[in-house]
Amino acid sequence: MDVSVGKGLVAIAAALAVMTGIFSTVGQGYAAAKAVEAVGKNPEAESKIRSMLILGAGIAETAAIYGMLIAFLLIFVF
């Protein structure tokens, strides 16, 4: 395989890995919107809703960081 083709494929793979951050952001926005809606419907459960939202956002952000790590590895190692 030609070197330029290999580098192009690595760049495409890195771009796909970075897309995890994009999708994670969309998911976090959707979850925040649903949490605001849930607090509006049931204000007494605000503390439980907030804690579950923060836990879910942390898990989603971890997935985005792993995607960024994979992208860096692909770019700088290969």
From TrEMBL:
- Major location category of this protein: membrane
Please provide the record's keywords in A-Z order. ATP synthesis, Cell membrane, CF(0), Hydrogen ion transport, Ion transport, Lipid-binding, Membrane, Transmembrane, Transmembrane helix, Transport
Site description Reversibly protonated during proton transport, residues in chain: E61
TM segment ranges: 12-33, 53-77
Q: Has keyword Cell membrane?
A: yes
Give the record's membrane topology. Answer: Multi-pass membrane protein
Tell me which domain of life the UniProt entry assigns to the organism this sequence originates from.
Bacteria
Q: What residue stretches are annotated with the V-ATPase proteolipid subunit C-like domain? A: 12-74
Q: Looking at the UniProt record for this protein, which Gene Ontology cellular component terms does it annotate, in alphabetical order?
A: plasma membrane; proton-transporting ATP synthase complex; proton-transporting two-sector ATPase complex, proton-transporting domain
User: Is Transmembrane helix tagged as a keyword?
Assistant: yes
UniProt-annotated location(s): Cell membrane; Membrane
Task: List the GO molecular function terms.
Answer: lipid binding; proton-transporting ATP synthase activity, rotational mechanism
Q: What does this protein do?
A: Key component of the F(0) channel; it plays a direct role in translocation across the membrane. A homomeric c-ring of between 10-14 subunits forms the central stalk rotor element with the F(1) delta and epsilon subunits. F(1)F(0) ATP synthase produces ATP from ADP in the presence of a proton or sodium gradient. F-type ATPases consist of two structural domains, F(1) containing the extramembraneous catalytic core and F(0) containing the membrane proton channel, linked together by a central stalk and a peripheral stalk. During catalysis, ATP synthesis in the catalytic domain of F(1) is coupled via a rotary mechanism of the central stalk subunits to proton translocation.
User: To which protein family does this belong?
Assistant: Belongs to the ATPase C chain family.
Q: What is this protein called?
A: ATP synthase subunit c
Species of the source: Erysipelothrix inopinata
